[in-house]
Design the sequence.
């Protein structure tokens, strides 16, 4: 009986990554090492050693493998022979890491490996990963693959230490803990702690031994935890890192078979796209979330995804479609039951009112913002981030501007309202919230000669620092 392929660690070096990619493409084309060796005029033994980074590939191997495997030149671009010294090798690893977490892996083993690479890179503070830029196209393929024809998952592993139900229960418990910390203190408070937990506690479980039932629950809990990591990174204004966490969270949810978690992740992805100003991508993700919510029967998830569709329409300037989506959100919220997933129970009528308020702000409907604001602010006790964000939206509604002008414009009132959000934001580790407050502050600079604006500017500089 043949031996199981040796586990690869692609992030260790450029040679390791080249070997892992060579194995990936070879298996994708259904070839054995011996077959590929014959087709490239090399031996199967050499192919095996290159895959395990035990041999440097000969000068012509990458080119021949690209031709046989039809990779479009991928292997030649990764050929570690281009690294002529240690600095070049580090640069090659940086190129490798720049793509970590963006792939939608073909099977569970690859998914665990890619997720592990992402978490390790985060823990190691790899700048090329944690400082990665937002990619407008990065979500399209994962969302498409998520919606593609499903097969019944069978997340069973027979290698490594045995993982039991008690350990999975702890992971679920940690999901609640980290989510509460995010809600109360902002994404920056415990983000690095969550990354360490994923890397040191959860990853060994994923590489352990478990039954289908335990594996399903473990993957679902990990997907939820990875989603929280994505939201924390998003709240910390780490857009590329957040994208990678979301993509791997969605992939883990797919292997768990839990569509309700998938709907929630797609909603979070839509929210990030909306924040980044990509209305079309936000719309597509919100609709993918609705389809998933319909499949799993979660009315609260449907309500949230409809509300996010409405915000995407508002960002695109389509008030009519925004109103229709909000109506569907209200209907879905009314249909919610006590059986909803725990992670979406925060989406109450008060949260929907906040979404109405944000959408009205995007559309320049200042009077509507001011009409929704009292109820939203009054219901935000204990939800400091929502309180600060809603206050910033209200302050913006008093600034001049809008399609037909703002009949409620009042610069002094805008300053007074925004000032109330400053001490709230100061209690949060939420760079996203601070950035939104600074954006309103920037709008007020046109009126910097007014005493109220001058006083607010000085106070924000003192409490929140300079705008980034």
Sequence:
């Amino acid at each position: 009986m043949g031996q199981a392929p040796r586990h690869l660690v692609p992030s260790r070096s450029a040679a390791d990554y080249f070997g892992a990619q060579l194995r990936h493409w070879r298996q994708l084309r259904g070839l054995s090492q011996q077959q590929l060796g014959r087709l490239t005029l090399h031996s199967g033994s050499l192919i095996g050693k290159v895959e395990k980074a035990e041999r440097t590939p000969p000068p012509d191997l990458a080119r021949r493998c690209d031709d046989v495997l039809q990779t479009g030149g991928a292997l030649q671009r990764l050929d570690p022979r281009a690294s002529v010294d240690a600095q070049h090798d580090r640069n090659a690893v940086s190129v490798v890491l720049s793509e970590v977490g963006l792939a939608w892996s073909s099977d569970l083993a690859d998914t665990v490996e890619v997720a592990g690479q992402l978490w390790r890179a985060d823990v190691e503070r790899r700048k090329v990963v944690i400082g990665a830029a937002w990619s407008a196209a990065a979500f399209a393929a994962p969302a498409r693959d998520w919606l593609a024809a499903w097969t019944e998952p069978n997340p069973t592993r027979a290698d490594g230490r045995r993982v039991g139900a008690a350990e999975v229960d702890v992971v679920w418990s940690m999901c609640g803990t980290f989510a509460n910390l995010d809600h109360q203190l902002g994404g920056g408070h415990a983000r690095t702690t969550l990354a360490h937990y994923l890397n040191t506690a959860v990853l060994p479980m994923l590489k352990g031994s478990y039954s289908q039932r335990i594996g399903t629950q473990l993957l679902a809990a990990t997907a939820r935890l990875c989603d929280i990591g994505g939201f924390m990174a998003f709240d910390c204004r780490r857009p590329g890192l957040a994208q990678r966490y979301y993509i791997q969270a969605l992939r883990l949810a797919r292997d768990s078979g839990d569509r309700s978690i998938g709907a929630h992740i797609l909603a979070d992805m839509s929210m990030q796209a909306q924040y980044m100003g990509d209305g079309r991508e936000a719309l597509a993700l919100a609709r993918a979330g609705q389809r998933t919510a319909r499949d799993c029967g979660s009315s609260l998830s449907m309500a949230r995804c409809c509300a996010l569709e409405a915000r995407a329409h508002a960002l695109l300037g389509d008030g009519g479609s925004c109103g229709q989506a909000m109506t569907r959100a209200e209907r879905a919220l009314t249909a919610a039951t006590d059986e909803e997933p725990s992670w979406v129970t925060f989406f109450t009528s008060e949260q929907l009112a906040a979404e109405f308020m944000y959408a009205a702000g995007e559309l320049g409907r200042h009077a509507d913002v001011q009409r929704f604001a009292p109820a939203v602010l009054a219901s935000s006790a204990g939800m400091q981030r929502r309180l600060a964000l809603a206050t910033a939206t209200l302050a913006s509604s008093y600034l001049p501007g809008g399609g037909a002008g703002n009949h409620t414009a009042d610069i002094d009132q805008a300053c007074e309202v925004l000032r109330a959000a400053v001490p709230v934001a100061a209690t949060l580790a939420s760079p996203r919230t601070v950035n939104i407050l600074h954006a309103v502050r920037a709008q007020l600079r046109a009126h910097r000669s007014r005493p109220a604006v001058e006083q607010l500017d000085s106070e924000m500089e003192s409490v929140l620092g300079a705008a980034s």
Q: What stands out?
A: The chain is about 65% helix and 0% strand. The CA atoms of residues 306 and 329 lie 5 Å apart. The two ends are 60 Å apart (CA to CA).
